Amino acid sequence: MDEQHRVVRCFATIVKNLLGAILVAVGLVMSLPGIPGQGILTVLVGVMLLDFPGKRAWEYKIVSRPRILRAINQLRKKFSKPPLVLE
Q1: pLDDT for 13-30, tens place per residue?
Q2: How far apart are CA 83 and CA 59, in angstroms?
Q3: What is the mean pLDDT of residues 8-12?
Q4: Parent domain of 61
Q5: Are 7 and 40 found together in one domain?
Q6: What's the rounded Cα separation, in Å, for the pair 46 and 55?
């Protein structure tokens, strides 16, 4: 969205963060016992949409775990994508 007007970028960022916050809240509710749904997965998708300081380091720390990286690469292989290589 670099070529978009500044107001459009700002509006899109606000909507993206609002959607992320809503998904985190709904995911937390779905994580409660007795309420059906994919709570943890919804929280993770919501966090991915949010912008906050230290997010990239947090994502890198999670993805760099061997089991998670292996699962990501298996999924990428299934869709004929090259494996994810961390720096």
Answers
A1: 999 999 999 999 998 998
A2: 17
A3: 92
A4: 53-87
A5: yes
A6: 12
